[in-house]
Design goal:
Keywords: Membrane, Transmembrane, Transmembrane helix. InterPro entries: Acyl_transf_3_dom, Acyltransferase_3. 72% of the residues lie in helices and 1% in strands. By secondary structure, the chain is mainly α. It has one domain. Helix 2 packs parallel to helix 13 and helix 13 crosses helix 14. It is globular and about 65 Å long.
């Protein structure tokens, strides 16, 4: 979800393709998890048997644990943000205005567009069914929260409009904390440790919280980035990389053999340790055939658009079947493949013809205004 950052992380013609692949897999896992929306009537699933979803025997892991792709996104965000901004913000090279514009231009245009799209589509769906599709809190209160990216800051009565935006709404809060901590506390790795300890303490005392969990995953990803930047300049780099690679392969096997994944907190602890280790290994500059590079980059570019457009596509399909008085053929393999194909193709073109142009326009406009403001002060 942060491709504009990657350009500054790697030399020209070298791309962090490992991170791109992980981001794409995380995005696909969310698509698998949300496939269950096709079994919804109002906000409840009906006649839903997880094992009867298309290709379940092949993709059971994604159908079962696909929601964890969100935590992977949070961790990747922390890794990338600390790689790019840790020094520039702490040394006051990037001020709050520029940081805000970079974030706003990247996230808000598509959020705003899909919010309006879903608002219209839900009215159409409601007129036929007397209830909304999946997310029911589509009133003026939640529209205002959505417009300010505050849909899941604790003021909501439930998920609303384009529901998947909840994780981005939470992450926006973390961006604010990230900037303020770097600017006014410092960039020491000890700060990351302190934040992580506070997150763990809060989770133990009060239970899971989206904002606290996002903060924890963001900062553990950041700690992985700090570790990579430090150790790649030392003689221990190869040894640590080898140990990390071994852990990436052996830990899941050990968890499966010992069955410790049945424990209540296993998923949280596993992701908090495994994902940053995986990112430490994957964040390497590699040179591959241009065709492969282009394909992987395109896949990475589609992650944010696929995350925000897949629910509007599902809602459109639900409206079509409602108005034709047909049941959604969610068990059909052809239907499943068609949904995935349409979502990915739409995501590719949305990034190319809407996301990127909107992002470039806002940043160019900000640079022009900043230049005029500076000239006026001379």
């Amino acid at each position: 979800m942060h491709q504009y950052l990657r350009q500054d992380l790697a030399p020209k013609n070298n791309k962090l393709l490992g991170l791109e692949i992980i981001r794409f897999i995380a995005a696909m896992s969310v698509l698998f998890w949300h496939y269950q929306h096709f079994f919804y009537v109002a906000d409840k699933r009906t006649d839903f048997v997880s094992e009867q979803q298309p290709l379940y025997s092949v993709f059971s892991f994604f159908y079962t644990y696909g929601h964890m792709g969100v935590q992977v996104f949070w961790c990747i965000s922390g890794f990338i943000f600390f790689s790019k901004y840790r020094r520039t913000i702490s040394e006051k090279i990037i001020d709050h205005k520029k940081f805000f514009v970079l974030r706003f231009s990247r996230l808000y245009p598509l959020h705003f567009a899909t919010l309006l799209l879903v608002a219209v589509l839900q009215v159409i769906y409601f007129s036929r069914n007397n209830f909304y599709f999946v997310y029911q809190n589509n009133d003026f209160r939640h529209l205002i929260l959505q417009l300010f990216f505050a849909s899941n800051w604790g003021f909501q009565r439930g998920d609303s409009f384009n529901g998947p935006i909840w994780s981005i709404s939470v992450e926006v809060v973390i961006y604010m904390i990230f900037y303020l901590v770097l600017r006014y506390v410092g960039k020491s790795w000890l700060v990351n440790i302190a934040v992580l300890l506070l997150c763990v303490a809060s989770r133990v005392a009060h239970g899971p919280s989206p904002i606290v969990d996002c903060l924890g995953f963001f900062y553990i990803g950041g700690l992985s980035a700090i570790a990579l930047q430090y150790f790649e300049k030392t003689k221990y780099h190869n040894l640590l990389s080898a140990l990390s690679l071994a852990a990436v392969f052996l830990v899941p096997v050990m968890a499966y053999v010992t069955r410790i994944y049945h424990y209540k907190s296993f998923a949280f602890l596993f992701l908090m340790t495994y994902v940053p280790t995986l990112l430490y290994i994957a964040a390497r500059n590699v040179t591959v055939h241009p065709t492969i590079q282009s394909v992987v980059e395109a896949a990475g570019n589609m992650t944010y658009s696929s995350y925000l457009i897949h629910f509007p596509i599902q809602l459109t399909i639900a409206i079509f079947f409602a108005y034709t008085n047909q049941a959604i053929p969610a068990h059909s393999l052809t239907f499943f493949l068609g949904f995935m194909f349409v979502t990915l193709v739409a995501s590719y073109y949305i990034f190319r013809f809407f996301e990127k142009p909107a992002q470039d326009f806002i940043r160019h406009r900000f640079r022009r205004l900043s230049t005029k403001s500076a000239q006026a002060q001379l």
